[in-house]
Amino acid sequence: MSTVTETKNKMNWQQLVRGNALIPVLAVLTSLIVGGILIALSSQDVLDAAPNIFSDPATFFSSLGNSIFGAYDALFRGSVFNYQADDVFKMFKPITETLAFATPITLTGLALAISFRSGLFNIGGTSQIIFGAIFAGWVGIYVDLPFYIHLPLAIIAGVIGGALVGGLVGLLKATTGANEVIVTIMFNYIAGLLLTFFLKTFMKAPNTVNPISPAVHDSAKYPLLFGVNTRLTVGFFLMIAAVVFVWWLMNRSSVGFKFRALGHNPRAARVAGINMGLTYVAVMAVSGALAGLAGTTQILGTEQHLTVGVSASFGIDAITVALLGRSNPWGVLAAGILFGGLRAGAATMQAEQGVPVDIVLVVQSMIVLFIAAPPLVRAMFRLGKEAKNEAF
Amino acid sequence: MKLELRGITKRFGALVANDNVNLVAEPGQIHCLLGENGAGKSTLMNVLYGLYQADGGEILIDGKAVKFSGPGDAMAAGIGMVHQHFMLIPVFSVAENVILGHEPTKALGFIDIAEARRRVKEISDRFGFDVDPDAILGELPVGVQQRVEIIKALISDAQVLVFDEPTAVLTPQETDELMAIMKQLRDAGKAIVFITHKLREVKEVADKITVIRLGKVVGEAKPTSTQEELASMMVGRAVDLDVNKAPAKPAGVKFGVKNLTVFNHLGQKVVDDISFDIAAGEILVFAGVQGNGQTELTEAILGLQTKVRGSIELDGHELVGQSVKHRLDYGLGFVPEDRTLDGLVADFSIAENLMLDRSDRKPFAKGILLQLGYLAKFAAEKVKQFDIRTQGINQRAGSLSGGNQQKVVLARELARELRLLVASQPTRGLDVGSIEFVHEQIVATRDKGLPVMIVATELDEATQLGDRIAVMYRGKIVGIVPADTDRAKLGQMMAGVAA
Q1: From the list A2, A258, A391, which residue is nearest B359 (CB)?
Q2: Are A114 and A322 in contact (CB under 8 A)?
Q3: Distance (Å) from the C-alpha of residue B346 to the closest C-alpha of chain A?
Q4: Residues of A in contact with B338 (CB under 8 A)
Q5: Cβ of A1 and B356 within 8 Å?
Q6: Which of A340, B20, B254, B305 is disulfide-compatible with B451, CB 3.0–4.6 A?
């Protein structure tokens, strides 16, 4: 019976989005272990010592230990706390880097988490970040206002930009039944190419051939929290506020209740009088608004010029972050900080230990793999089958 | 082949699903396993089929102990299972479905589809199944799909056939046909185990009856026992199978449908120019074989069907063209046919399900702020009032038994200020105790002076619950007759013969 299998598929997909909190932790742990193996394999010292493993095991194991410990030590020092630095400010700088990266990643992760919990698979984080950045950038670059109006206005513009792109996807789904996965993926291309077009025409900075916009006015920039030489801005607090807001919206408001009802059982939601089309638009607009906010932390914070790389890979990383955080706002925050740390530490790891940055990408990808295949993690850690809470 | 289950015990944590259960299935006999939902029937069969390992007891075939570690072993030993939800692939042909898992092959491993077709045809002809081996499974009626499952069991030469709640998905006619098939298989020397909670079916085919309650065998019954005797064994107390209701006191017409036509998404007429009235304090039951437009009619009343012509008037207020939300707010109570799919959000708690239709307004929300304190109070009250058996208001609705799920739906719908109650197959798949409760609630709603519309597929329910019966056939109303019209006459009407 097709309806039965449909419900089952839906359940599996919902399990992927939510489900056991132990799995993500174990997935990260396993990925770091696999990452360690790859680090060892990429170390010339280890490879040199390997043929003599039986005659000179001490050298082999010490080089193995040194390469893995050295790499993760560098990762730690680049992302959390640099105990080798010569002054206190530099010691704590890495954590600010981590949180600076974590800000847009977490915001976009929250955006996607809302859509996932509402049963919509928003892959369009990239397009929504880009439009958020274009709108915020426009206000920040071409409008001149005092600080206390300029920054809020630019932020609001960015949020609206993201919400419009997201809401448009919802509208297309509501009116034509278009699949949001395909539409959002296509929107990512459209947004990226439109941005390139803008940067080559009317948003291009004078006196350069590169596709880059003029700088955002100082009055529209997020204030830095720890002064020059750091990148962590007030945007971080907006991100924390967004985490609380998403938790409140989904768990304490009637709007979030409808979102969740739609996500868990759209048919029952419809029978209960919930306007599906309107809810699709609302979910995607709220989702887009959060990704748009992520765009503002880029353009008004860390980047300050609009370039084609404004969304970095945050739109895609956020999918992993939302899944890793089980679409729960606090989980997304934890996952976002983890990913921020991996990004911040990767550079130090490469500079000091010669470990390719790509190892971090591999670790991130392994995390996705292990989350997407919970039975794999369960088998490795002998967790046994997931307890079924069903009447029989 | 004689199958014997001896002292089977199966525990899930603290719960004992099967407690020292004995069952013997002999060739040429139909052995009914009768019990309410959740009594442990399906668990027992899953143990037999190797899907669960028993914690105690043994399975014997012709007196020899056997051990099954999976369905493959059970099949190889000659046990065939016809599942409640068919384990078939809708896009495959009948022949392809039947051979799936043990495909006959030619040289080089090519599937010998001609051989498969021949085998299907042979079995179909031998038992008069009338199944076309080349038909695409998904396009066949449910009853025929079930015969494909039976063929699938027979083709691997099963001697013991287990039918797990096989009639839950069938229309009355299809049920009759299945009963005939079961008798035929019995006469061909097969041992049949028939799991059900429907008393009429047990009475019709059983040679032997074992009644199971709360995981234990409570006794054997004779096929000559009355339905009341069987029901009280099953439930553990005296049960009144008749619906107790005073004669209706219909007041003026409250609900009227005029010249209603509904088109489905393919543009076909599924409800064809229907008109009827329901008075205040009256139950009108729509009887008929499933799939004759009853579902679409109720959906049109709720507003789920959008291609609608004609008029639906409640208390002088036109509903056609209004949103679902508007109709619910105006006082339409709706119990959908498929409660798990349309009535509940399985992953939501009982409390959340109870406010599904009113989550955005007082008293459940102030502005957009949910009033969780009020919800908890409201839910606790409803759980008590409707006797919903649960560990608490935060239990997942999906983990409740069917009867308790239906109570949640009813509690929600009846909590609003209603002008009309529409319930589609309100007792489908429920156990005897829950059916009694649901019927009481429906009659009580009528006695409050509301018009009530019920869709029923079982004639017994229609005649007992209804004050009048409307019979639908191919989207039209064949006739509206008093509830005491005799069964034969109603049966003819269900086949399209005008009253």
Answers
A1: A258
A2: no
A3: 8
A4: 3
A5: no
A6: B254
With beta carbons under 8 A apart, name residues in chain A contacting B354: none
Average pLDDT over chain B reads: 89
- How far does B397 lie from chain A, in Å, by closest CA? 10
At position B477, the amino acid (one-letter code) is I
Chain A stretch 258-297, residues whose beta carbon is closer than 8 A to a beta carbon of chain B? 258, 260-261, 264-265, 267-275
**Which of B43, B138, B347 is facing A392, going by the closest CB pair?**
B43
Rounded alpha-carbon distances, angstroms, from residue B376 to A252, B7, B349, B350, B353: 14, 44, 11, 10, 12
Beta bridge partners of B277: B256
Sequence-ordered alpha helix ranges (H) in B49-160: 71-76, 94-99, 113-126, 142-155
**Cα B326 from Cα B110, distance rounded (Å):** 59
pLDDT tens, residue by residue, B133-165:
999 988 887 788 888 988 988 888 889 999 988
How far apart (Å, rounded) are the C-alpha atoms in residues B380 and B388? 10
User: What is the Cα–Cα distance from A110 to A189, expressed in whole angstroms?
Assistant: 22
Neighbours of A112 (CB within 10 A): 31
Contact assignment for A272 to B356 by CB distance below 8 Å: yes
Residues of A in contact with B334 (CB under 8 A): 271
Q: Tens digit of pLDDT for each residue in B197-255?
A: 888 888 889 999 999 988 889 888 888 888 888 888 888 877 777 778 888 888 888 99
What is the b/e burial string over B354-384, where b = at least 16 CB atoms within 10 angstroms of the residue's CB?
bbbbbbbeeebbeeeebbeeebeebbeebbe
Contact A370, A26 (CB under 8 A): yes
3-state secondary structure of B18: strand
Separation of alpha carbons B387 and B406, rounded Å? 11
